[in-house]
Structure formats: structure tokens, C-alpha cells
Write a structure and sequence with these properties.
With 264 residues, this protein is α/β, with parallel strands linked by helices. The protein has a 5-stranded parallel beta sheet with strand order 3-2-1-6-7, with helices on both faces. Helix 1 links the parallel strand 1 and strand 2. Helix 1 packs across helix 6. The longest helix is centred in the middle third of the chain and has 18 residues. It is globular, with a radius of gyration of 19 Å.
Length: 264
């Protein structure tokens, strides 16, 4: 059985990787795989470097094509849409585009790497029996995101749920072991960000904020498949004009990311 940790380099998956490295969760993973969208904030890549230097198992970095950022920009120029769930300004009062980015830029490249590790060639069928246990860093407060793996020979496992750890337990464990708190793992232009995340980005991560504002402007006149005006924020206002009042914050939309591959 191949034990693979799906690594997002956020709070939960970082705690999971470090706990496994110290033998607190068994067995020791054979590897961790980070699906790079090429659109994560710098702090995520810094955290990934830290994890890689502090675990005894290999950490593989995989990417679909040139990444989600460039694919999204190409969709503005007429290429196939990469699939972020942008907010739409429609007659019905607004909505969201269908989300495809998680599957295309997280799940698929990880599965391709898993196939490679198993020695499967392109087009070759997978094993008839379960051959891979895929660890996912979902904690007790996100149990709604737990779903079986659609690939029959891959078994999803949620070790943090097994030991009844919440996100705050992960943070406490890292503090007690002298580790710094990781930032959130999510693409800088993800429409699922809540107001506090946008505000924090604007105040403390000027590089990501500048890139997000630029992307928000680029998608305004639609992408391939729609001519509707698109926005990164649910208010359907330009980011530079949004009120990020936490008292009027949206619910945690990452619960909708049911594959459990983003934000952990």
C-alpha cells in the first residue's frame, strides 16, 4: 500500500506532515505531493520549502501545464476556461461560474504523479484492488468536505479526523513544538476568499493584492464561454472598491470545495 499525503502547505496539511514526520501519525507516509497552481501566495511556497526541509519523506511538486494563473489569462484571450468559480453579473441577480480548477489543477496532477509512482503507463488501467491510501488534511470542523475517492484503487484517509483534531488543535500543536503558524493555502485570486482574507491580503501581502486587483480587472469583460461581467468578490464590485467589513462577511465557501484539496 502506497501512503501519499496530499500537501497544501496550509495549517492542517502542515500539521499533518510534521506530526507524521515525528511518528505521531502512522505509518510514515511514502511521500507528500503538492499540486502547484502557480497562483499561491509567496508564504505558501516558503512554507512548502520549510516542510520539505523538516520531513524524512520526499515532497513532490507537480503542476498541470503552466499553472492556473496563465490558463486563466489565456481564457480571457479566447482559450478554454480554466474553471475558477468567478462571480457573474447576470439578470438573475448574479451567480458563480462552475468550479473546475480544483479537479484540473489539484486532483488530476496529483493522481498523475501517483500513477507514475505505481509504475502505471499512460492509458494503462489501475489496479483492481486498493493500492494507494491518500491522506487529506481535513480537520473536525471541515468534516462536511470528506468524500470517498472516485478512483476505486485509491482510498482517502483523514488522519486529523481520526484523532479528533480541529484547526485550532493543529495551531496549538505547532505552537507547542516551536513551529510558526502557516498562512492559508489558496490561490491569490480565489473567489472563495472571505472578507477577512481579502483585508489581510490588502494589509499584509501587497504582492498578492496587486496581482489579485489586476486579475479582477482582466476578467471584467468575461472569459471564453460567457460574455457576462465577472468579479472576484461576491459584492460584484471591483476589489479596490469593496468593503471588507467582517461583520458582513460571507460564510466559509471552502466548504463547497468538497474534494478537500484547497485551503488546508
Amino acid at each position: 500500500m502506497l501512503n501519499v499525503l496530499s500537501l497544501g502547505a496550509g495549517v492542517q496539511s502542515t500539521a499533518l506532515a510534521l506530526m507524521a514526520a515525528q511518528g505521531e501519525i502512522e505509518p510514515m507516509p511514502d511521500c507528500a505531493i503538492f499540486a502547484d497552481t502557480a497562483a499561491e501566495p509567496k508564504h505558501v511556497y516558503d512554507q512548502l520549502d520549510f516542510i520539505q526541509a523538516n520531513v524524512p519523506f520526499p515532497v513532490y511538486r507537480v503542476m498541470e501545464g503552466e499553472g492556473l494563473e496563465k490558463a486563466t489569462i489565456r481564457s480571457i484571450q479566447g482559450a478554454r476556461l480554466a474553471g475558477p468559480p468567478f462571480f457573474t453579473e447576470s439578470k438573475g441577480g448574479g451567480g458563480m461560474l462552475r468550479r473546475q480548477c480544483t479537479r484540473e489543477y489539484k486532483i488530476t496532477p496529483i493522481q498523475q504523479k501517483v500513477r507514475e509512482l505505481l509504475g502505471l503507463k499512460k492509458g494503462q488501467r489501475g489496479p483492481k484492488e486498493i493500492a494507494v491510501c491518500q491522506w487529506i488534511g481535513i480537520s473536525m470542523d471541515e468534516m462536511i468536505r470528506m468524500k470517498p475517492n472516485p478512483t476505486k484503487w485509491i482510498l482517502n484517509r483523514w488522519p486529523l479526523v481520526e484523532i479528533q483534531m480541529y484547526r485550532y488543535d493543529c495551531l496549538r500543536w505547532m505552537r507547542e513544538h516551536g513551529y510558526e503558524e502557516p498562512g492559508k493555502s489558496a490561490c491569490y485570486f480565489c473567489p472563495y476568499h472571505d472578507n477577512s482574507t481579502w483585508q489581510n491580503m490588502m494589509d499584509h501581502d501587497p504582492d498578492s493584492w496587486e496581482r489579485a486587483v489586476k486579475m479582477d480587472e482582466l476578467i471584467r469583460n468575461g472569459v471564453r464561454g460567457t460574455t457576462e461581467k465577472l468579479y472576484l468578490h461576491r459584492s460584484m464590485q471591483p476589489l479596490t472598491e469593496c468593503d471588507f467589513d467582517p461583520a458582513r462577511d460571507q460564510f466559509d465557501m471552502f466548504d463547497n470545495e468538497c474534494e478537500g484539496m484547497c485551503g488546508v
